[in-house]
Recover the amino acids of this structure.
């Protein structure tokens, strides 16, 4: 029997933990839940106070000093803020576009501006160095990971006390942090979406409406991955219920499903705006766009018609182009 990593992911989500090896011992990462996020905030405040007590400066004071030394000024802050808002607005405007070619072009602009934004963030971080906030975030993350590591599969006994974890060498801490982030990546939204679309999940999909019947837990007791499993199971179940025309060859590909539904929505909008005309001109639309907007319609290219007729069109040809 072939190994299926997505089935293995599903079993781990059901169990609420992921096993891993550390120095020849099998340990378990408990999948985090909503309560854990609150603990992370408490840890951050705890370690920020420790940092301040050690004399590590807050970011605000570091920036005051950098501005006095002319290494950073208000214009840099303004530029970063404006670029961040610009990228946010670009993403919002992309959602309002109908033509796939326009969305593709728009995404290239988003990528370019995000690269500029990331460069500014990198420059700012390099100038700041280690701040009280950065120290607190680093230590809080390590404390967060420590509380998710268990000795037993029943998740009854945490492996490391705070003192024991503090005595680990830096390589061990890096290893444990990396294993944790590998686990989080393993259960990315994309992977969970693919998991619920597999044949082995079909029998569970209709049950995603009722968290307690599914997991035997109240919703606040569920791990983040269990909640996402139910969420995407419910989303795709509804999609299949109300979209009988969904092509069979894309039913296991979440990105293609969402693209198909987006195209279908745009096609319906296109038909409402243009009626039942046999041929409609859509300025700025490529052939690929037209295939998505209206697969059954005649696709007439003005540039091809002009080239075919020596650069000019008579009235009859223009009428034909317009579908009359």
């Amino acid at each position: 029997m072939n190994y299926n990593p997505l089935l293995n992911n599903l079993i781990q989500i059901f169990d609420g933990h992921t096993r891993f090896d550390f120095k020849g011992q099998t340990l378990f990462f408990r999948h985090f839940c909503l309560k854990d996020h609150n603990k992370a905030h408490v840890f951050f405040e705890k370690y920020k106070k420790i940092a301040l007590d050690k004399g590590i400066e807050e970011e605000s004071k570091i920036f005051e000093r950098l501005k006095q030394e002319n290494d950073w000024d208000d214009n840099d802050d303004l530029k970063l803020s404006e670029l961040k808002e610009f990228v946010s607005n670009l993403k919002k405007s992309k959602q309002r576009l109908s033509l796939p070619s326009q969305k593709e072009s728009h995404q290239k602009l988003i990528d370019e501006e995000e690269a500029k934004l990331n460069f500014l963030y990198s420059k700012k971080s390099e100038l700041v160095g280690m701040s009280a906030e950065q120290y607190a975030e680093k230590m809080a993350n390590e404390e967060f990971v420590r509380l998710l590591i268990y000795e037993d599969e029943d998740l009854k006994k945490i492996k490391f006390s705070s003192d024991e974890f503090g005595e680990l060498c830096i390589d061990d801490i890096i290893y444990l942090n990396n294993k944790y982030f590998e686990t989080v990546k393993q259960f990315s939204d994309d992977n969970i979406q693919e998991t619920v679309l597999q044949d082995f999940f079909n029998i569970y999909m209709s049950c995603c409406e009722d968290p307690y019947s599914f997991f035997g837990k109240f919703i606040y007791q569920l791990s983040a991955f269990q909640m996402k499993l139910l969420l995407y199971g419910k989303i795709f179940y509804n999609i299949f219920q109300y979209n009988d025309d969904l092509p069979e060859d894309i039913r296991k590909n979440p990105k293609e499903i969402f693209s198909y539904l987006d195209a279908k929505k745009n096609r319906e909008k296109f038909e409402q705006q243009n009626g039942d005309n046999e041929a409609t001109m859509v300025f700025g639309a490529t052939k690929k766009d037209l295939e998505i907007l209206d697969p059954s319609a005649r696709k007439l290219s003005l540039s091809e018609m002009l080239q075919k007729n020596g650069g000019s069109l008579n009235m009859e040809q223009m009428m034909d182009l317009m579908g009359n």
Notes: The CA atoms of residues 72 and 124 lie 8 Å apart. Strands lie at 17-22, 25-30, 149-150.
